[in-house]
Amino acid sequence: MSRIENRPRAGFVAAESGATAVLAALTAPLLLAMAGLAVEGGMAYFTRAKMQSVADAAAYSAGAAFRAGAGVDGARLEARAIAASLGFVDTTAGPIDVVVNSPPASGPNRTNPQATEVILSFQQDPLLTKVFRSDPYTIRARGVSILNAPPPDPACVLTLDPSGASALHLGGGPRVAVNGCDVIVNSSSASAVTGNGNGALTAQRLDIIGGVDLRGNVTVPPRRTITAPVADPYAALPVPPKSGCNRTSPPSVSNPVPDGVYCGGLSLKNGSFVLSGTYIVIGGDFDVGANANVTGSGVTIITIPDGSARSRPQIAANARIRISAPTSGPYAGVAFFATGGTAAAPDNVKWNGASNIDVTGAIYMPHTNLTLSGNVSSQDAVCTQIVAWSVAFQGDATINATCAGVGVRAFGVGGGTENAVVSLAE
Q: pLDDT per residue over 209-255, tens digit each?
């Protein structure tokens, strides 16, 4: 009897080996892709974890910059600097984008003015998976800081000129008492504050970027150097359109003076006048003449140039004006709003000698060199603010800062990086 041996055939073994090789060749790229994705996923995870720490640190520093009055641009520069110091700059594996929002654009603190949000977006190029994709990965991290800081020291006078000499000037020996608040001078000039004669400025502090050049016996309050300009608190005030004229200013103005839009000017002379409401004066001056007596409550006076026709609030010698601003509405807290002038060519307004100006609210002239040669008193005005391109005091002034309920916008210098962090993330 013959024996049958149970042995595999050579051809079958060869076929099986070939199939395995083909299968391995087909699955190798998939296995490599999966390995590459796993490695790059791990890299992205660790990059994301590092970015979260960077976002937290950047949110804290950006919030501190806002506290110091740096504004959005300054806060973003601070956040970018923090990101760069921790390795995330445009020259790394991919560029990083830094977005700063205060308050945050989303989340539970989106209405909290004390909260600052930093969003980092990092573009990481693929390394092991370039065969399968060429677009970079986008990795994002978000940090939110809430600085539990006291409010800034209140200020009553702010000059906005960033570089001019004599942004604040004391001339002819005025006695200017700024009670309960600071005076802020944004100018970086070595002669940002000037004075001559025997004048004196008293206030809690003089917050200043530049220097002081005083002649004679002029005195100023203790100085505090600031490194960044304080933002214009009224910069977002809406300017009315140059249209809708519904009032005129004949030689004899009716009394009380109706509010509305006056084209060509509004002149109040030789008499007593009562104001109430918003007076928009286009292409002409709001002119308070000598010996006029103007009173009113809930008053906002807005002057708007029209082409070559200038429009300024003018107060003559021996005039008397005693008004208070509205406490609500779009112009809450604003008594005067002069829209003329530009940063390159500021307007000039002089309120003349012996006039008595008693204003509760803000005198806001962002591109006007304002000279006060008359007396600015606070006999009735518990709260007066002056925000102008520059301010020159040539007459005595008393300015108070009891501003609760008046409607003015608070501004000042204070806070800083020493404040406690309540939250760094959401």
A: 999 999 999 999 999 999 999 999 999 999 999 999 998 776 567 78
Rounded to an integer, what distance in angstroms lies between the CA atom of residue 213 and that of residue 196? 9
Read off the pLDDT of residues 262-317 as tens digits, 9 standing for 90 and up: 999 999 988 999 999 999 999 999 999 998 999 999 999 999 999 999 999 999 98
Please report which helix (H) or strand (E) contains residue 272, including its range: strand 272-282
**Phi, psi (deg, nearest 5) at residue 21:** -65, -40
Nearest one of 120, 133, 121, 119 to 40, comparing CA atoms: 133
Residue with tokens 């989303």: 106
Q: Which two tokens stand for residue 142?
A: 């978000």
Q: Which residue has the tokens 């693929």?
A: 126
Q: What CA–CA distance (Å, rounded) separates 4 from 45?
A: 63
- Residue 397: count other Cβ atoms within 10 Å of its Cβ: 23
pTM over 0.85: no
Which secondary structure element, helix H or strand E, spans residue 61, and what is its range? helix 10-67
Dihedral of alpha carbons 275, 280, 284, 285, sign: positive
Q: Please, what's the largest Cα pairwise distance for the chain? A: 147
CB 340 within 8 A of CB 320: no
